Amino acid sequence: MLRKEVIVDTNALLIPGEFGVDIFEELERLGYERVIVPKAVLKELDRLRHRADLKGKEKRAANIGYSLVLKYMWGCGAPLHRCKVIINEEEEGRGRNADEIIAELALKKKAAVLTNDEPLMRKLLKSGVVTVYLRGENRLEEYK
């Protein structure tokens, strides 16, 4: 049986800190068993955490997102037993941004993508990739 996989974009990792939505619990509710965080996304999130001009809620959201990735990746006290986070190391390549890496990886792995980035969502949907997004600021929903 194939595991249902989802690739997570940087802005999706900000959802817990901005809206208080447990994205991992929501992904499990939708049937996703494996969460893939591209290395480029983790680096982007880390840059956000360390930006001097980022303050308040945004900085807190970046810190929460980063710590959640580490928590679920290592399985430290995670309430979800089926949902595993893995850091994808395959996407190394100069000059490519996280969105390009995510789109290529989604097609290659036949995985869904969790994002609220509308241009990326349109690109993914045109390519036949299932997208998961925040709906009503309180739950995740799939768009096929």
| Span between termini | 21 Å
Shape: globular
- Secondary structure: number of strands: 6
* Spatial strand order of the main sheet: 3-2-1-4-5-6
The string of secondary-structure elements, in order, is: EHHHEHHEHEHEE
Low-confidence stretches: none
Polypeptide structure, described:
47% of the residues lie in helices and 19% in strands. Strand 5 and strand 6 form a beta hairpin. The model has no long low-confidence stretch (mean pLDDT 84). It has a single domain, classed as Rossmann fold (3-Layer(aba) Sandwich), CATH 3.40.50.1010. The chain is built from seven helices and six strands. It has a six-stranded mixed beta sheet, with helices on both faces. With 144 residues, the protein is α/β, with parallel strands linked by helices.
Concise overview:
The protein is an alpha/beta fold and 144 residues long. The chain contains 7 helices and 6 strands; from the N terminus they run βαααβααβαβαββ.
Provide key terms for this protein:
single chain; alpha/beta; 6-stranded mixed β-sheet; 6 strands; 19% strand; globular
Topology:
Elements: E1 5-8, H1 10-13, H2 15-19, H3 23-29, E2 34-38, H4 39-50, H5 56-74, E3 84-88, H6 98-109, E4 112-114, H7 118-126, E5 131-135, E6 139-143
Parallel strand pairs: 1-2, 1-4, 2-3, 4-5
Antiparallel strand pairs: 5-6
Helix pairs in contact: 4-5
